[in-house]
Structure formats: C-alpha cells, structure tokens
Amino acid sequence: MYEPSVDPLRVIDAHVHTWTRDIISEKDLEARRIAAERDGTEPQLDSPIEALEAAMSDAGIERAVILPIDSGLNQDMPLSLKEKTDWHADEVMGNPDLLTFVGIDPRRGNEGLDELERAVKEKKCGGWKMYPPNGFYPDSEEFYPYYELCTELNVPVVIHQGFTSRFKHIKYGRPVYVDSVAVDFPELKIVLAHAGIPWVDEALTIASKNPNVFVDVSGWQIFAARSTDRIYSMIADARIFRVFPNRMLWGSDFPLFEQTMPLKRWKDFFTKLRIPDAILEKGHPQVSQDEIESVMWKNAARLFFGEKP
Ligand SMILES: [Zn+2]
After folding, report:
1. CA of 253 relative to ligand 1 center, distance in Å
2. Residues whose Cβ atom is located within 5 A of ion ligand 1
3. Which of 98, 108, 232, 285 lies deepest, with the highest CB count within 10 Å?
4. Per the structure, how many domains does the chain have?
5. 178: in domain
6. Distance 231 CA to ligand 1 centre (A)
7. Per-residue pLDDT tens over the stretch 266-301
C-alpha cells in the first residue's frame, strides 16, 4: 500500500465568519454594500455554513473557528443574544471540524456574563469573540469579570483589532488597549485578530511582552494579493519579537476577502511561503517547514482544540 513519506500539511483556519441576511442588521448589510461598491465587487449578504464547508473542502482546510459578532447594543438585530448563540452553536453541531465562539459585547454586564457561561458550558462554544469597534475599549475594568470568567472556563478570547467596516469605530481597535488585560490576566489566552492591521508593530510589541498573547493573520490577503513584501517583513519582525512561529495563527476572515484572494490561494500562499532574498540578505533566516506548520495548524490545535501536537 502506498504511504506518503510526509504527512500532508494539516490546516486550521483560526478566523472565519458565517451568517445569513436574516441574522444580521440592516446596518451591517448596508456596510457590506458600501464596501462592495468601493471595491467594485458583489456585496456579501450571506455566508451560509455550506459555503464555508465547500470552500474548506476545495482548499484542503481541515478545521475552522467561527467568530460571531454581537452588535446588539449598537444596531437592531433580528435575533436576541441567546438566539444568536444558539443559531451558531446549532449550525456547527453536525460538523466536529467546526468550532464556534460566542460573540458578546461586554457592556451587557451580567446578562453577557451569564450568556458567556451558558455558551461555553451548554452550547460547547470554544471561546469569546469581542468586537471593540462597536464602541468600547477592552481594558476597561468594568469588563474584568469577563476576563476572569474566561480564565475560569479556560477558554481564549479573540479580540478584533484594527480595520473595520463603515459604521464601526476604529479607535477602539488599537492593540495598546489590550496590553493591561494581558498583564492582569496572565493565564488568559488572547488573540489579536488581523495582527492589528494597520497597527502591526503595536500588536507585535504587545504580543512580544505578553506570552499569553497571539496574533492571527486573517485579512493579510490584502497584502498577499498586491504587496507581498509587507507579509515577509511582518514575519521577519514577528520573529524578532518572538511571536513567529509559536504565537501566530493562520486565518482567512472567510468570506470577507474571497474576492481579494480566494481561500485556496491564500492557504497555498502561506503554506509555500518563502522569505525573498532581499530580506534574507538583511540577516533574517528563511522560514522552515516546521515553523509554517506551527502557524498553519499546530498553534491553533493547541489553543482552540486542546491538542498537543
Ligand atoms: Zn473577522
């Protein structure tokens, strides 16, 4: 029987989204139309789980982490907080390769805390997705009970960072507002989404000093498609900051960048990534296959799926 000498590379997408137009707000739909008009593309009004599963299977991606967003304090949402948790928990029920988080705006206070606990304990949600551009700074001490609860439940928090859509507020997405949380909750695992684009140095600096902080590279398709040097130099910097390879997670933000670079191409880009000579000549080492595997799946397997690869 034929046996490949090297295991095929496994891949976990650490950052994806699913929704249908029935569960998001009119305002979010409008923001998608505005973005599509800017880009000259079709607006993404739906992202059903079937589309995710098909794209994953086509791209050879084994598992993915779905990150729902709670915009219920800013916008009229068709579903209540609990209904939205259940919608996401139910949709992944038949697929053990998909893990969903719970999206909660921490300004909800006790209601949100109860929901976080219910989502993790009863609905098998794998962590908390926080979306500061809805209007809050993550380091407010009034949110500390959420970090305590995540620590107690032993689940990570993924915090949206940097660029956002038309009706959200980017100032809340600066990585510097996560530093105190990382310091005060050393056991809590924190992921800075998008490696903080455009505040990448800030994100890497914060991850560098706090061993409990990770970055994901979802959204970096914008550079992979047009300005690859920015990715190579980010990885070189992340190595200096000791964030690459062990605290960097590959992700896509599916389906939001599909028209920039389809999932399969983005996966291939990163799995075959080689630092060009011009950067190596400055004294940076080449990336190894082992290091790429850490980013593509091993770090995520540890962080989200409790494995010990
Ligand atoms: Zn996202």
Report:
1. 5
2. 253
3. 98
4. 1
5. yes
6. 18
7. 999 999 999 999 999 999 999 999 999 999 999 999
